[in-house]
Amino acid sequence: MxxxxxxxxxxxxxxxxxxxxxxxxxxxxxxxxxxxxxxAIAFVRSPLRRKPSFLIGPTNSAxxxxxxxxxxxxxxxxxxxxxxxxxxxxxxxxxxxxxxxSDWREFQKRQELADLVASTKDVLLFESLRPIFRLxxxxxxxxxxxxxxxxxxxxxxxxxxxxxxxxxxxxxxxAARNPYSPFHNESPDLEKLQVRSAENAAVLPLLRxxxxxxxxxxxxxxxDVPDAHWLPVTxxxxxxxxxxxxAPIFPEPAGKMRVLFLPSRSWLKSAELIEPxxxxxxxxxxxxxxxxxxxGETLMHSEIPDAMAQADLVIDQLLGVVGVFPxxxxxxxxxxxxxxxxEAGEIPIINISPKTLESExxxxxxERPKQVAGVEYASRWHDGxxxxxxxxxxxxxxx
Length: 399
Prior knowledge:
By secondary structure, the chain is α/β, with parallel strands linked by helices. It is built from 15 helices and 14 strands.
């Protein structure tokens, strides 16, 4: 009983803090007020300026929030990325704004974020349906993101939602269409993905009802969310292109072919099917391969360009998804192997399956082709320009 009373007091206090903030916001806001005759105050969505400003967060997954923001800002549209993290000390990427979750739980910090958005931002892109503000912090059984949507409507802001992959992917449908899907076998990891994606999928009807733009970063997700817009992943193209310029593949005509396989999550990236083949070919003396998995090693993202500079061939995964890593490898001038389902489109990646992986590696080791199309493809679609065009088309601003 004491616990219930304490919890009720907490939520009453939260409501008072939110109501006080809302009164101040209404007083200070420059948004147009309508329905004065009815003595009601309602806010309308503000038309976008020619050069609107953006905030993207709060996950900065694969550094996409920062890289999209960089592309927007370069085009004259001020943008910033946000990351709310449980462990900022071990983050792989740098965000424009970074908050520890413990700090974010303080109402004042969330209020400061809301004030920043109210006064300086025109468009918000919510990643993975994760909340940013939660000023009311109600426990009413609804998805937490709905509070933030209502706040954006109160402010008159434009906003959209971005899904990166496992946050919305239907694992059962994926397993049905992909014979090499890692989702065929039940596991605690898979169960966690399914719970998360199901929670997010339950919000899709509301997004459609409110006509909130939905973006996905890989084309396979258009099978799960057919009405979404493709927002291409963006890479630090100049950085990886420098690898292509300074470290060409097959520098020694008679040397072993150097192979890089660097799965972020072994079970998701089909390591149990790929690595045994690589070890076999390494033991034969055909290839040079360092097993990061067997050695329990991980690489920081800042170390990946150097790792790619020491490889001729990069192997990605059998998931059927073309994400950031293989695009970076293409920009670095590497040969890339991955499983490409029909929905992936035409990409200069060597298409493999568990049955053809070994034979394709042997073929490449013998033929030693030079990668010529990958750099151009990465530049055409993933240096930020196409992402910018996708956002401009949906939100109606000029670039």
